[in-house]
Amino acid sequence: MTNSQPRTKNIAITGCSGFIGSHILERLLTTSDYHIYGIDISESKIRHLINNKSFTFCHHSITDTPKIREILSQCETVVSLAALCNPSLYNTKPVDVITINFTNALEIIKMCCEFKCRLIQFSTCEVYGKTLAGLMCSNKPDDYILKEDQTNLIMGPVSTQRWSYASAKQLLERIIYAYGFEYGLNYTIVRPFNFIGPQMDYIPGSDGEGVPRVLACFMKSLLYNKPLKLVDGGLSRRCFTFIKDAVDAFVQILENPEISNQQIFNIGNPKNEITIKDLAYLMIELYEQIAPRGSFTAGTEIISSLEFYGKGYEDSDRRVPDISKIQNMLGWKPETDLRKALQITIEHYFRKYGTTAEN
Questions:
Q1: Dihedral sign, Cα of residue 90, residue 95, residue 98, residue 100
Q2: Residue 166 has what DSSP assignment?
Q3: In terms of C-beta density within 10 A (0-12 exposed, 13-18 middle, 19 or more buried), how is residue 335 classed?
Q4: Which residue stretches of the chain have pLDDT < 70?
Q5: What distances in angstroms separate CA 131 from CA 31, 138, 312, 348, one per listed residue?
Q6: Which residue(s) pair with 121 in the sheet?
Q7: Is 281 a catalytic residue?
Q8: CATH number of the domain at 83-352, please?
Q9: What is the pLDDT of residue 12?
Q10: Out of 34, 37, 165, 179, which one is annotated catalytic?
């Protein structure tokens, strides 16, 4: 498993066939001269890239330590994306969630230290947990705007297993920081804020099972003319970020290793904040512009989090990123507003699944 490229031009991407990984992979293969070693247990979203001469697909789990060691030993940079980030599993399969997102990912970190690789670790905005604004019923910006190096990370009680994912990712960040402090690990941690776009998740019943993230849940309801379910009324707020903007930010991080070394960056679009309830209505509006007239008539339905996710689920009320750090250090800012991002995403879903759903 070797190529003629020098090690400095080799990049390993774990989770290369996931939503974020597939978009990063395509960008790098079309705009750079890196050789990419893509590691995943599926190639479903990247089949059109498999034969690219600058890409080596490695059909392995990150638990296959000997194979992963062989790959990483040839690479200067490792992009760690492999994760289990399905909200329906956080409180139903917490052992798997913690094992994959912390224990298995920790082995990647150790290998990066051993082989002196640069690590770009994708974390999550969920590490911020609950906001002070929510806990204190405050509307002060300092209590809900989330800053990489200042905001306290507040989790729920241990018995509320919904926090298994966020806690695993937070601990992973802390150990990366520790490896940087003690052993000089070259790392950058990325905290994504609700990336959306084509190829996100799956449509349950068509190409996956379980409960994906909110946008895919809403898309299934639109495609099958079922009510969009508003968990606890859909009052939580999120800042959605278009995947193209997110990949632009990643490229800036990749191409500026000295500036990005041992830094944590929020990648998000604070201008795209919306309640989940309003997101549902906006998606209905945009879907009706794309689908045949009368295709969707089901509206929305309020459902409790207990009924939707099961016991042990809890939500964070609001996540607004402060992106001044990445703007000032790397010159990145998001360009795509929420309406445009949703329009592109819904059109993709309709082209891919619309005919199947109608049948």
A1: negative
A2: H
A3: exposed
A4: 1-8, 202-211, 355-359
A5: 39, 10, 19, 34
A6: 80, 189
A7: no
A8: 3.40.50.720
A9: 98
A10: 165
